[in-house]
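Thread: Newbie trying to understand structure tokens

Hi all, I'm a second-year student working on a class project, and my supervisor (Dr. K.) asked me to get a predicted structure for one chain before our next meeting. I've only ever worked with sequences, so writing a 3D structure as a token string is new to me. If someone could post the tokens and maybe explain what I'm looking at, I'd be very grateful. Here's the chain:
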Amino acid sequence: MSGGVFVAVDGPGGAGKSTLVRNLDQRLTAAGIPVLATTEPSHSPLGKFARHHTGDYQGMALACLVGADRYHHLETEVRPAVAAGRVVLCDRYTLSTVVLQAGIDDVPEQFVRCINADAEPPDLQIVLTAPSRVLRERLAVRGSHGRFEDDPTVPDREVELYRKAAAASERAGVPTMVADTSQGLASIESLLSRLTSIIGGLWSQ
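---
Reply by user tm_fold:
Sure, no problem. This is what the structure looks like when written as tokens:
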């Protein structure tokens, strides 16, 4: 992909991904940078089906649903937006798939990576994290978004799995930023200026 910038934001449930994407969209737009804020699973019928049926589909079946939605999302939204010179902010991407499908749902990681082999890496990978206790407290207030957030033991596993996934992303040559959001909105606010500057610099190159 060329022209714009593709930014992926991943991390455990309750880490603040949607909040960061929403506020970063506003900051970049105010700076005159064209933005597409999106999410995975996407808002397409296939993406909505995958998002709302994590209790009905598990393992390889769900991994294939998520992968199919990803390729449709890339083809119909992400690649055209980047080619048009926009900054794409994606709430969850391939790192979430590796963590949730391989790490939590016990799908062989090789299978997961094979399904996603033709999904290009982002220009910038952001991984949000927080202590598992904080994540559980936030999820209790916000409510669950699906099967992966119903199990109170998942945040402990996610924190470690995302730490490993972020390290693997770095080793693969993807510019990766890990940020602790344990201070809530104050943590997000401190990130916004840094990210607006970094992404603005990538976009203007």
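A couple of things are worth pointing out once you decode it. The domain at 5-204 is CATH 3.40.50.300 (Rossmann fold). The chain has a mean pLDDT of 93. Feel free to ask follow-ups in this thread.
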